[in-house]
Amino acid sequence: MIVTAYNFKQKHYAEVRDAIAKAAQAGIGIIGMKSMAGGFRRGSPVKNAGAAIKWVLQDPNVHTIIAGFTAFEEMNLDLDIVEDPTLTDTDKKELQKEALLRSHYCQGCGQCLGQCPEKLPIPDLMRAYMYTHDYRNLALAQDLVLSLNLPTRVCDDCSQCSVRCASRFDISAKIRDIVRVRNIPLGFMA
User: Fold this and answer.
1) What is the C-alpha to C-alpha distance for residues 7 and 118, in angstroms, rounded to an integer?
2) Is 123 helix (H, G, I), strand (E, B) or coil?
């Protein structure tokens, strides 16, 4: 089985869809995740969570979805969607509008790879940033950052960052922010 991010805001969703189809045709089970595109975190929330989930479930090659919830209302919404996963015309219009809004998380498109002269693992660092600022899980972010064996000084030597992100993130600022988790004492985090 493969668990993969798959949502209506991915600029490269057609590539993801094609890879999902190939995997499913090879007999691999597909579980979709990140259907909200980071929408229930800080910033602009997804206004129609049900539509976002339905969008993923419309793909016949997706076998199930991780539709997280933190309240009974969200669980009930998820159960209602399973009973009727049909995307309405209104759902589609709302998702089209939301797809145009700036993304708040790294889409994993890989466009940044190879742009950094220091060869930093930018998608991994952006995932650690998400763990910290969206999931509020410093320990998970720290584990990831420490596993990357980064140089002592990160993003300090470039006068101007040459990395251009598809989501228009200020990559250098986010990296300088997230590498600070290396310095948090392990006993400080629960």
Assistant:
1) 31
2) helix
